[in-house]
């Protein structure tokens, strides 16, 4: 659940979440001062968990970082939730096979997360592939259950990205609705930095952008890239790119609407 609002940092446009699969990658991301270090195994699915031993190592090595754990879908999340170290800030859970609001809300309610770890519900832009509620329905449930956050991702990591499933105008409307309800919203789904720049120019400004594939070493097909090695230079490019976007048109970006609502930064 949300805590008290933080003062938005006027120099920042959006936060960055980078998914990592082990402590070595997490330390690279921490050195780049990425906002959220998210642990998941990209070889095993959209939200596949890493071994709980990796969570424990990260909790010991990076106690001051904002750490997040992907718990997978309903088939794994309930059993794993109780093992998330209390120093973690977030845990993400996918909605696949949850076809009704009551199924989804029951799943969220059953997760035995430590009290200090906030659930980040996930909605899939390609919800048919995941056989679950569509985005608007997941947002309705987030609002109805008084939760503070929503991550939109893609279920199929097949080379298509978020914007292949959901257009800029629809994303902007969804963000506006979430923001009006005080929900922090993160966008992910095989996004590339150039796409994010275009989205921002079209008025789509997430509270946070989530990425894995585009911060990995290039040279393989996009769908495989996310399973490869993390590239520290790409992480730095994203950090610099988001900073430039926050500065506005003279730096090559359209004036990005500032995130000023209660959902602006971590609460
Ligand atoms: O939570 C965000 C995801 O890790 C994004 O991964 P992706 O960029 O490979 O789709």
TrEMBL record:
Its EC number is 4.2.3.153. Catalyzes the formation of 4-(hydroxymethyl)-2-furancarboxaldehyde phosphate (4-HFC-P) from two molecules of glyceraldehyde-3-P (GA-3-P). It is an enzyme of class 4 (lyase). Keywords: Lyase, Schiff base. GO terms for molecular function: lyase activity. InterPro entries: 4HFCP_synth. It catalyses: 2 D-glyceraldehyde 3-phosphate = 4-(hydroxymethyl)-2-furancarboxaldehyde phosphate + phosphate + 2 H2O. It holds the Pfam family 4HFCP_synth. The keyword Lyase applies. It comes from the Bacteria. This is (5-formylfuran-3-yl)methyl phosphate synthase.
């Amino acid at each position: 659940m949300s805590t008290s609002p933080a003062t938005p940092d006027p120099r920042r446009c959006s936060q960055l979440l980078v998914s990592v699969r082990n402590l070595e990658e997490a330390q690279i991301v921490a050195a780049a001062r990425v906002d959220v270090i998210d642990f998941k195994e990209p070889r095993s699915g959209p939200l596949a968990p890493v071994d709980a031993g990796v969570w424990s190592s990260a909790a010991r090595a990076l106690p001051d970082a904002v750490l997040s754990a992907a718990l997978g879908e309903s088939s794994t999340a309930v059993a794993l939730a109780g093992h998330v170290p209390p120093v973690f800030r977030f845990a993400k859970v996918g909605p696949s096979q949850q076809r009704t609001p009551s199924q989804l809300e029951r799943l969220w309610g059953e997760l035995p997360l430590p009290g200090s770890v906030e659930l980040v519900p996930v909605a899939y832009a390609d919800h048919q592939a995941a056989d679950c509620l569509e985005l608007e329905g997941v947002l309705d449930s987030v609002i109805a259950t008084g939760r503070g956050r929503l991550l939109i991702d893609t279920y199929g990591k097949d080379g298509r990205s978020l914007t292949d499933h959901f257009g800029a105008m629809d994303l902007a409307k969804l963000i506006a609705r979430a923001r009006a309800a005080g929900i922090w919203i993160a966008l992910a789904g095989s996004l590339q930095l150039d796409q994010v720049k275009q989205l921002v120019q079209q008025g789509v400004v997430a509270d946070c952008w989530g990425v894995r594939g585009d911060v990995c070493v290039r040279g393989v097909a996009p769908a495989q890239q996310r399973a490869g090695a993390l590239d520290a230079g790409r992480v730095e490019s994203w950090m610099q790119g988001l900073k430039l976007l926050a500065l506005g048109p003279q730096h090559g970006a359209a004036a990005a609407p500032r995130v000023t609502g209660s959902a602006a930064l971590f609460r």
